[in-house]
């Protein structure tokens, strides 16, 4: 099964006739642009897609051309965690667009050392386990405590916060994970949920999600990932993300990382709920709902 074999079609979702659609565009990795009512929300936008050699050599630089080309507009940027493939471009997009940034203390520190004005950055790291909330135009957001998949021989890669660096650029391994969020997004009567890493906290069920934006990388090493995600979120549809090789530029399109085991994942999801729609979109492709 190739990712394009399970691509969503324009007609995959029923569109209401009494309002404009919610458009969800995949930016590659766990990155999405969600647009409605003239507002644009970006989640984990990573369009620089540094090569493996650049990642090994470091330090990492955000690509201004890619940022301008692929994320020209943003009202808010949400960072689910601060690994480089989720956070590298966040400060430069914030500086270019003026968008407000919502993220962990680690994300706040990253933005601070990159020169993003303090008033433009919101710390939404959970206190006492309660999800922080924010409203952006028509979007209501909740930042649900979550956890990163421990795919690196049973360990979470680059744990801890970005806290001990005082300037950018940073090396790849300085993009520490920070606190991890799932993002609950409610807009125009629909509920979307962004799971940027393939694990979750069972103590935070978030049931009856219309569209789950789900990270694939790491799913095979997370114990009982499929039944847990289906039980906790009960999604009507699942848009698969973060299965692409993000060491190639945007112009190369999305090619799968090795060992994603997409057929087994799709089979597992649909075995639990035969009515769930599971699909992909091409790089920069979108669905509307
Ligand atoms: Zn990560």
Secondary-structure blueprint of this entry?
Elements (H helix, E strand, L loop, with lengths): L22 E6 L2 E6 L2 E5 L8 H6 L6 H7 L5 E3 L5 H4 L2 H8 L2 E4 L1 H9 L7 E3 L8 E5 L2 E8 L33 E8 L2 E6 L15 E5 L9 H9 L3 E5 L20 H11 L4 E3 L6 E3 L1
Parallel strand pairs: 3-4, 4-5, 5-6, 10-11, 11-12, 12-13
Antiparallel strand pairs: 1-2, 1-14, 2-3, 7-8, 8-9, 9-10
The structure holds zinc ion.
The site of zinc ion (ZN) has 4 residues, from loops.
Low-pLDDT runs: none
Mean pLDDT: 95
What is the total tally of β strands? 14
Structure ligands: zinc ion
The gross shape turns out to be globular
The run of helices and strands is EEEHHEHHEHEEEEEEHEHEE
Kindly provide the radius of gyration, computed on alpha-carbon positions and rounded to a whole number of angstroms: 17 Å
The CATH class name reads Alpha Beta
The CATH level-2 architecture is identified as 4-Layer Sandwich
Tally of separate domains = 1
| Largest sheet data | 7 strands, mixed
What is the CA–CA distance across the termini?
Answer: 25 Å
- Strand neighbour order, sheet with most strands: 6-5-4-3-2-1-14
Strand content: 15-25%
Under CATH, the topology can be stated as Metallo-beta-lactamase, Chain A
- The CATH superfamily name is Ribonuclease Z/Hydroxyacylglutathione hydrolase-like
What level of helicity do the residues show?
A: 10-25%
Structure classification: alpha/beta
Number of continuous helical runs: 7
